[in-house]
Here is the input.
Amino acid sequence: MNDRPLLNLSGQAKRDRSIILAAFFGFVFLAILAWFGFYPGTMSPDSYEQYEQAKSFRFDAHHPPAMAALWSALLPIKDGPQPMLILQIGLYFTCWFLLFKTFWSSGQHRLAIAVGLCSLAPFCLNFVGVIWKDVHNALPWFFVAIIAIFFPPKTKLSIVLLLVALWYGWMVRGNAILAVLPLIFLVLHRTERKMITTGGMVAIAFALFFVGKTIVHDVMLQPSHSDPYSRAMVHDLAGIRHYGGNPTLPPTLVSDNPQLERQLSHYEPGDIKSILFENPDGNILLRKSDPDAMVDLRSAWLASVTGNPLAYARHRLAFSLDFVHVFRGRGYYLREIHFPEPAKEAGVPTAYLMPSKIMQGWPLFWERWPFMQGWFWVLGLIGLGIVGFRLRTVSDGQNLLALSSSGILYLGPHFVFGQAADFRYFYWAIFCVILGAIILLASRSRKRAPEAIQSPS
Here is the structure.
């Protein structure tokens, strides 16, 4: 019997281990570069609000408090955004390393290299260091999807931990309420298990998500009342008025804003800043924490929508076109490197100037390319859904359907309740499309692989 093939296989295995180890250190190096590029963590106004909540451990419901609670737990390490930055960068490059390791180990070397390079893609890298709840939704879900698809969990503990990670991503974004269902399916489904059984398990897990939210959100964190949709409703009133409707204006809003008619006239379809934050006639004041004022606003909003359906539809269509970046020159990517005054007030250190400029310039260099526009990723989700439906009887097709439906269910509420046409809202959709493309490329690579050569006797 010839032992040479066994020796060759052993040598190849050693080379593969060496390359995977080198890749690990390569991703660590990239993580260090990202640290300097994003340091101390890119902060938006939302970030500063949640930072203050994390420091005081007093929350309001406008920003779901789960992220601020996690931030608060990390503050003993370092008072500032740095611990969150380490967490985000570490999770991001861990995901890409796991994908690289999977494909290199299976002999799909070209796909492994492509995956490694994808970690530097501007549409993936641009938000990694932004301390945003959108990132805290997308990155844990990205990690869970990778594990569920390529490293199926075999123990109850691993399944529970993956569900907890999904639950956290679900807690930090209100519009993620239905988008998590296909991901729970990914974690729980097995080929030998009947669909009806998996469906029942998904329903139970989803119910437990609400139980967990009640315990953590309502009992433990107890955020003060703040209506997260109040700004969207005011923006809708302005849009209805702009497109020829006659919106019902809530008395409390009128009394708080004597120039409300003029303030609403500065409406822009894709940007609430035009009326709420950068209004030439003064920003519109909202009593987000006053339940009675919010009931008044919701009643007026509902009456305005039902009484002016055509104007409302035109407003929402205009917003949707802006949201997917149709006929639009650019989107929002890293926004400003820092907001100087809030940073100074919060005691957040300044960025490393040159690395930060490079990190911000990288996505902006590509901003006019299709992959930096929302419509590109919407089409990608639809394409994944079509291919997944055709392959629905096999595991690859089911994974594609799960990713596609999760991305669509995540984006869907933005078309109805969206307030700003920010590219950041596509972050989870981007990861869905990328994972779907990887699944298809891996399947194609397996089909093209030569048949295994039998050892000569």
Remarks:
- The first helix runs from residue 4 to 38.
- The two ends are 5 Å apart (CA to CA).
